[in-house]
Design brief:
The protein has 20 helices and nine strands. The chain is of the alpha/beta class. Bound molecules: NADPH dihydro-nicotinamide-adenine-dinucleotide phosphate (NDP). Residues 9-14, 32-34, 37, 73-76, 79, 82-83, 101-102, 127, 130-131 line the site of NADPH dihydro-nicotinamide-adenine-dinucleotide phosphate (NDP). It catalyses: 6-phospho-D-gluconate + NADP(+) = D-ribulose 5-phosphate + CO2 + NADPH.
Length: 477
């Protein structure tokens, strides 16, 4: 037998991806460093389709039709390089290695360049949707050459999630590292979405005085409106879950220390390198970090806070509506920031990413899938060179309608001492963009004062310096 595709790395993701290919009628060659995993897959799921289990790299490569398509689903980082080192010498020009792991896009660029010299197509493909998505249809963000996509595209389209209109959630994102960059940003936006939801939850709990079960109902209602999304849906599920051992809301027995694997942090690091303000995403990453500093939090418990004011029932319901407005407005801003980062990455690395298409392939399969993404696609279709999502008229109008509540909620949070870093950061970003004048003028003055860093003027061209230590005359610089 010859297999149309092979998967090496058969942990949860690789196994489910292999099953997904097989269930879609492809013959799938299987390989894993530890052969037991390969055997287990065939034992448990062998009847789902045509699998060709192999034990050695040589056997694996030999099982594949040419040009070969090898999907690598191993632990990101050194293991990916180890696998490439093992397989590349066995491949021929025209063959494709698809890295479906969560690689850093810079690693993908390096690997792509190195393999291109050997005539091998290296496709860094972001895959989102977790275990379940890998099996039933993920959102797939492949980078790499046009040529490789011509060969892979139809297969990926088959196994990918389908949006509500039936469109497969996959597109050729762009050359080399573009796919992994977009996946990274997807995860950064996911961090922000989750943090904003968390802040909304905390406000409903601490200010509105709602129980976890009541808040689950609020989220269920929100999920029927413009916030309709996978994350809101599962939030309601998590909040309504009751811990069996204690009878308490599940959310009350879970340790409040969020963990992270790195893609959110990368999104912020790369944004800093590219000079893109992603304050909402950054606050989301920092919020996880704060939550994990147990000693610091323990030592800070005595710090003074305001006296909280409990709301009456009617007030609480009105407040919950305001929180929905705030959540929606902050969400628009954090997507604006994430899409700005992709635009900047695309410009920096000549990827020519179609941002509307990216939004379209996130409509299904991935963690941030949401009705909202359709709107982003339409905004970019109407204006492909949209400088910012906030430049889109309909988003601007929605924020205009939400802003009074948005501001109220953040003011209330500050007054009541509920931390809302992502809500606040996204509002500050919005107000910064709106501002006629920013204090940056003063910053420039300070920089010129202490470091002769010079400044430009509003009223004429040129670069100037004031002789601060002398008679304060202005000189051309
Ligand atoms: P893991 O990240 O836990 O990786 C385990 C797999 O990597 C095993 O098959 C293991 O082989 C193999 N492996 C580790 N080191 C080496 C090595 N040096 N040489 C060869 N193989 C090695 O598996 P997951 O399925 O969770 O994830 C796979 C990839 O998908 C990762 O890059 C992850 O970031 C990404 N991803 C994961 C998602 C998820 O929800 N889990 C979602 C989206 C992407 P062995 O069995 O021999 O130990």
């Amino acid at each position: 037998t010859t297999a149309q595709i092979g998967v090496t790395g058969l942990a949860v993701m690789g196994r489910n991806l292999a099953r997904n290919f097989a269930r879609n009628g492809y013959t799938v060659a299987l390989h894993n460093r530890t052969a037991a995993r390969t055997r287990e897959l065939v034992d448990r799921f062998g009847d789902e389709g045509d699998f060709v289990p192999t034990e050695t790299a040589k056997e694996f490569v030999a099982a594949l039709e040419r040009p070969r398509r090898l999907v690598v689903m191993v632990k990101a980082g050194d293991p990916t390089d180890a696998v490439i080192k093992e397989f590349a010498p066995l491949l021929e020009p025209g063959d494709m290695i698809i890295d479906g792991g969560n690689a850093h896009f810079a690693d993908t660029r390096r690997r792509e360049k190195q393999l291109r010299e050997q005539g091998i197509h290296f496709v860094g493909a972001g895959i989102s949707g977790g275990e379940e998505g890998a099996l039933n249809g993920p959102s797939i963000m492949p980078g790499g050459s046009e040529e490789s996509y011509a060969s892979l595209g139809p297969m990926l389209a088959k196994i990918s999630a389908k949006a509500k209109d039936g469109a497969p959630c996959v597109t050729h994102v762009g050359p080399d590292g573009a796919g992994h960059f977009v996946k990274m940003t997807h995860n950064g936006i996911e961090y922000a979405d989750m943090q904003l939801i968390g802040e909304a939850y905390q406000l409903l709990r601490d200010v509105a005085g709602y129980s976890a079960a009541q808040i689950a109902d609020v989220f269920r209602t929100w999920n029927t409106g413009r916030l309709d999304s996978y994350l809101i849906e599962i939030t309601a599920e998590v909040l309504s879950h009751v811990d069996e051992a204690t009878g308490k809301p599940f959310v009350d027995v879970v340790l409040d220390q969020a963990e992270q694997k790195g893609t959110g942090r990368w999104t912020v690091q790369i944004a800093l390198d590219l000079g893109v303000p992603v304050s909402g995403i950054a606050e989301a990453v920092f919020a996880r970090s704060v939550s994990g500093h147990t000693a610091l939090r323990e030592a800070s418990r005595h710090l003074a806070g305001p006296t909280a004011r409990k709301l009456g029932e009617e007030e609480a319901a009105a407040f919950a509506d305001q929180v929905e407005q705030a959540l929606y407005a902050s969400k628009i801003v954090s997507y604006t920031q994430g899409f700005h980062e992709m635009a900047a990455g695309s410009a920096e690395y000549d990827w020519n990413i179609d941002l509307g298409k990216v939004a379209a392939i996130w409509r299904g399969g991935c963690i941030i899938r949401a009705a909202f993404l359709d709107r982003i696609t339409r905004a970019y279709e109407a204006q492909p060179q949209l400088p910012s999502l906030l430049s889109d008229k309909s988003f601007a109008e929605e924020i205009a309608a939400a802003q009074d509540d948005w501001r109220d909620v953040i003011a209330t949070a500050a007054r009541q001492g509920v931390p809302t870093p992502a809500f606040a950061a996204t509002l500050a970003y919005y107000d910064s963009l709106r501002a006629e004048r920013l204090p940056a003028a003063l910053t420039q003055g300070q920089r010129d004062y202490f470091g002769a860093h010079t400044y430009r003027r509003t009223d004429r061209d040129g670069v100037f310096h004031t002789l601060w230590g002398g008679d304060k005359t202005e000189v051309d610089s």
